[in-house]
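pls design
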């Protein structure tokens, strides 16, 4: 009886708008991160762009958290809504941490493996945005959502392989007398890997929502 009553009640559709807005910022942040990894004088500009995107994303995450508390009928479980927006926010937070580390080390040049990891991050952000847009009609889009979440996992696996290759190259190419160069490079690789990990977390959240709502 309760489920029948809830089905008739109006749902707060603004949640999906907020998810989409946040996902757009994930893409913008990822694109700025990739441009950053081209190095040169544009590094600081792109770091500032990432900071701005992260701040805007935080504001959206906060609005979602408030809406969960105030909305009587939500499109899916409240915990899932909070978990999804928090995992999305963690992804752009990690981009910000990556930018801060790069500024801290005053890095201006990056390896081709770092740029390849940046390419994977951009693709993961695009796939995430596509997934988020399909959530509004989750039953109709179930098959495609399953494929997209699996795609993010594949991208994360590929990024892990690039990370391993890059770290091996870093060890071989860094003079033993330049420990700081190794520390800086390893730190940047670590942050990039964590960005991809956060996108996998988002994919896992979406997969869980999909399972619970079919």
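designed seq:
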């Amino acid at each position: 009886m309760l489920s029948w009553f809830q089905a008739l009640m109006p749902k707060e559709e603004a949640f999906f708008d907020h998810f989409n807005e946040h996902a757009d910022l994930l893409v913008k942040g990822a694109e700025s991160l990739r441009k950053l990894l081209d190095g040169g004088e544009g590094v600081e500009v792109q770091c500032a762009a990432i900071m701005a995107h992260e701040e805007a994303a935080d504001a959206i995450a906060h609005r979602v958290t408030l809406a969960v508390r105030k909305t009587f009928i939500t499109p899916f479980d409240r915990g899932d809504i909070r978990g999804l927006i928090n995992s999305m926010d963690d992804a752009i937070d990690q981009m910000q941490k990556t930018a801060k580390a790069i500024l801290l080390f005053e890095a201006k040049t990056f390896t081709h493996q770092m740029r390849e990891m940046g390419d994977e991050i951009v693709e993961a952000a695009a796939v995430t945005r596509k997934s988020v847009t399909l959530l509004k009609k989750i039953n109709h889009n179930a098959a495609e959502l399953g494929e997209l979440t699996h795609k993010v996992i594949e991208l994360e696996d590929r990024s892990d392989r690039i990370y391993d290759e890059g770290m091996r190259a870093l060890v071989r190419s860094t003079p033993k007398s330049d420990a700081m160069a190794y520390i800086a490079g390893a730190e940047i690789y670590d942050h990039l890997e964590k960005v991809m990990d956060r996108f996998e977390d988002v994919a896992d959240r979406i997969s869980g929502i999909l399972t619970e709502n079919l």
